[in-house]
Amino acid sequence: MTPSIKREICDCCNKNVLIGQGYLECQNCPKIIHKLCFKNSKFSQGGSGHLCTNCFSISVMIYNPFKELIGLDKESDDKFYSEDFLESFDCINQASTILENCKSYKLKSIHEKVPNNSDFSTMFYNIDGNLSNFDSFSAEMSMQKLTYSAIALAETNVNQNKGDLYKLSNYSHFYNDKIPNKTKGTGVCLYIHCSFNATINDKLISTTKNLESLFVTVNKGTEKVNVGVVYRSPNGDSKEFLNELTH
Questions:
Q1: What angle do CA 220, 221, 223 make, to 5 degrees?
Q2: CA–CA separation, 16 vs 4, rounded Å?
Q3: Which end of the chain has fewer CB atoms < 10 Å from its terminal CB, N or C?
Q4: What is the DSSP string of 54-99?
C-alpha cells in the first residue's frame, strides 16, 4: 500500500495536498491548491499557468471568460459527460490560451509597432453597446495618431436605422441589423475611412442567432477588396456558426 505522503497545504481549503492528487501551482510563488478547489479558489489562469490572489493583483488584467471551464475536473464535473462539451473543450482551451497570451499596450507602444503609412490597416473592437460606450470609444480613437482604413465593431446593440447616431469623423459607416428581439450582445458594423470608396456586399451579409456578418467592397486603387466583420454570440451554436459561415 502506497503511503499518503504530505506535499503542501492547499491555499484554498487549507488541507494537505497529497501525492497523487491533482494540484495547481502559482507560476510566480510557492502557493499551491487542489485542482478540485480551483473553482472555489481565488486562483486565476495566467499566461503560462496559474496565479494566486497576490500575484494576480500585480499582474496585467486579461479578459478570459473561458478560465473557469479550463479548471474543471473531468471526473468530478457533470459537464464532462456532455458530448457537446467534450467536443468543444479543445476549442475552449485554444481560445483560453490565445486570450491569456494577449499583451496590453499603451497608445505610444501601439504607434511604435504599427506604421501609420500602412497600405491598409484594420481594427476590431467589441464595444459592448453603443449607447453606453460609443462616446468613450470615439474619444479614445481621437487620441490615437494612427488612422485605420477600416474599423469593425461587434455587440453594438444597434439596428441599421440608428447608425447615423454614431458617427466617427472622416469615416463612412455601415450597420447591419441586430438579431430580432435581442437587446444585448448583438449587432455589427464597419467604419471605412473616407479616403476609400465602399459599397455594401449583400451576398456576404447575415443575421442569424448563430452568425452575424457584414461585408463591404472597398475600391483600393485598381483593386477591389472585401472587408468584413464576423461575429458569433456566445449563445450561438458553434457548429451551426461554422456551417453558416462556409455556406
A1: 65
A2: 10
A3: N
A4: HHHHTSPP---TTHHHHT--TTT-GGGG-HHHHHHHHHHHHHHHHH
Identify residue 117 by its one-letter amino acid code.
N
- Find where cell 473553482 sits: 39
Region of residue 185 (phi > 0: left; psi between -120 and 50: alpha; otherwise: beta): left
Longest CA–CA span in the chain (Å) reads 77
Write phi, then psi, for 69 (nearest 5 degrees). Answer: -65, -35
Q: Report how far residue 163's alpha carbon sits from residue 227's, in angstroms, rounded to the nearest whole number.
A: 18
Residues 130-162: tens digit of each pLDDT: 999 999 999 988 888 788 999 999 999 999 999
Residue 197 bridge partners (DSSP): 219
Contacts 24+ apart (CB under 8 A), 31-38: 32/7, 32/8, 34/10, 35/71, 35/73, 36/73, 36/76, 37/10, 37/12, 37/13, 38/71, 38/72
45 neighbors 70 (Cβ within 8 angstroms): yes
- For residue range 33-56, list pLDDT tens digits in order: 999 999 888 888 765 678 888 887
Classify strands 206-207 and 212-220 as parallel, antiparallel or unpaired.
antiparallel
Q: Classify each residue of 138-166 as buried b or exposed e, where b means 16 or more C-beta atoms within 10 Å of its C-beta.
A: eeebeeeeeebbbbbbbbbbbeeebbeeb
- Cα 12 from Cα 130, distance rounded (Å): 40
Sorted by sequence, the CB contacts under 8 Å of residue 36 that are 6+ apart come out as 22, 73, 76
